[in-house]
## 1
Amino acid sequence: MTPTAANGATAAVMTSVRPWRATVLTIFPDMFPGPLGQSLAGKALDAGLWSLDTVDLRDFALDRHRSVDDAPFGGGVGMVIRPDIADAALAAIDERPGPTVYLSPRGRVLDQARVRMLAEGPGVKLLCGRFEGLDQRVIEARALEEISIGDFVLSGGEPAAIALIDACVRLLPGVIGDAGALDEDSFALGLDAGLLEYPHYTRPAVWQGRAVPDVLLSGHHEKIRLWRRQQAERVTEERRPDLWRRYMAGRN
Ligand code: 9D3
């Protein structure tokens, strides 16, 4: 299904705006769409709210073995992606919209501010790291933006690309209904306000001898709001001193 004026949510986006476009350069194109073909992102993909294309780095190899890597100058473990092959692949997607991101454990750690900016743009081109990394010269020559998704070791950039795309897609107009986007709490609390979330409860009211906090059953909406804020602050101070410091500084 493509966006049509028949759908009120997409009608506003129709005029001149092309769907947000993700282009992924990878030696494992079969990893895509993967989880992005399911749930929220998958429905939005089917609805034409965004598009996903993969480009196989091996298609730009120069030998019959389709090798894209070589041994590191100066010695050491592992292999390095060749600059000439990465550059040829990047040249082939030059006309596609958005900045070119190289997913690498050496990158700046992705945050919601960068996700918001990428989602507001026309799309993104993602080069997935593999082996020990990519020749530094192509990173410089193409001014690639290096992004990591956190301080843990993946086997390659593909799962990081999937996480980045998922984070962007859920922000695209029409992907989340008004219910989620306009929910007051998601602005007042939660990551947007710089706090971790308060704890959630649903039925049954007592489960395995554990009762839901009384205040949530009280019907006092002001008390509930205050309790949730207290809980959000307590858990943030406890688990994320970095977020807590920023939150407290921002209250001045
Ligand atoms: C000798 C050190 N290398 C292996 C432990 C460094 C290394 C190279 C390549 C470690 C991981 C990888 C593959 N990772 C990614 O391509 C990657 C990644 C990550 O590992 N963590 C967080 N974000 C990202 S984005 C791409």
## 2
Amino acid sequence: SERNCIISMETAQALVSDEYRLETTRRIEQIRRQFPILNRIVNDKSLVYLDNGASTQMPQSVIQTVSDYHTYHHSNVHRGVHTLSQEATQLFEDSREKVRAFINAPSDREVIFTSGTTDSMNLVYQCWGRTFMKEGDTILVSNMEHHANIVPWYMLAQEKGVTLKVIPITEEGTLDIDVFKNLLTPDVKAVAVNHVSNALGTINPIKWICDVCREKGIVTIIDGAQAVGHFPVDVQALGCDFYAFSSHKLHGPTGIGVLYGREELLSKMPPYRGGGDMILSVSFDKVTYNDLPHKFEAGTPAISQVIGLGAAIDYINGLDRAFLEEYEHQLLQYATMKLSQVPGLRIIGTASEKVSLVSFVIKGVHPHDIGSILDEDGVAVRTGHHCAQPVMERYNVPATTRASMAFYNTFDEIDALYDALLKVTTLFDVN
Ligand code: PLP
């Protein structure tokens, strides 16, 4: 969309006019008040939290909901006839319905709670990959995947003789679509790609990929970890077979995530782990498995976290998402423009479709040094390979510094980042 285009410096400056900045700051301040942690002082400075790609912060409503659950309702789910258990079960299953609606899944039978995106990918590997892929089959992954969407497929390849092929990326950080089309040979049974790259910020054309794959009977496994927090996701509109994400990147608690899978596929897959809750009956001779989605949820689940995720979805649903999407885009433009003025700084990932994330290197300065110096000014960014080593290799850099924004970040915070980076370049004499 036009909204996601990287624009010229003049246009960016014009767009982020004083009026726009003033008006949005007022609206964003109201939002920020809901996030107590954003008031933290770090190293005698106001916290500037720009590590949302790793984990987003939780609003008070999520913290309160989790606390209320522990204070008033805590009990195990699904098995109890007593009041507390029924309340906990109701809250837990209400959250599943909230997730279903949030991603527009056709049925809550297709919403499986996992411990996060990594766990969701491992579920698909263990239950779908190991059952339905065999020697001679190929799975395509892209060069911009997080390790969570590489290592399970590497393991599958090692174990089953499946071939793992890589969709290359262009210098800007987009999928090389021409090569991708050529890679779609009849042996390809699955394509595993992210909706948004955590290392580059690129938004991939998932609907188009799913359309192409569906025509060829190829299963699509989408890593949505970096997408759900930035824009609405509709799994039916995308037409994907599997979609994974984590609650902690969506302003919810850690330790909980989701795997959406089409019922047609899930119903044919064996269970993930064996134990309580995933069975209908057990004897030493025969075990019958529970219905979807419980077949994939063995043992006591992360109850409070699931309920917290439901509260995070309620919170997000109460926001003006269209405004915030536009606002985050302006933050991206502004950050791109400001950071481009830092001496020796090179942005890694300049796709025209990006979320509000800027990955960069500074000539002659190791990212870990940048991260430490920024922290002295209370500016939290992530440095390293971002669990995406093939991306680092592609750009021939050992690591990058990543500033990843959320809707509660402000233009002033981008200025603070810029000022702190100028300190780095002065200290290291970069010009
Ligand atoms: N995929 C992407 C694109 C990510 O950014 C992340 C986390 O950084 C993951 C997968 C893994 O998520 P989790 O650690 O919550 O399982």
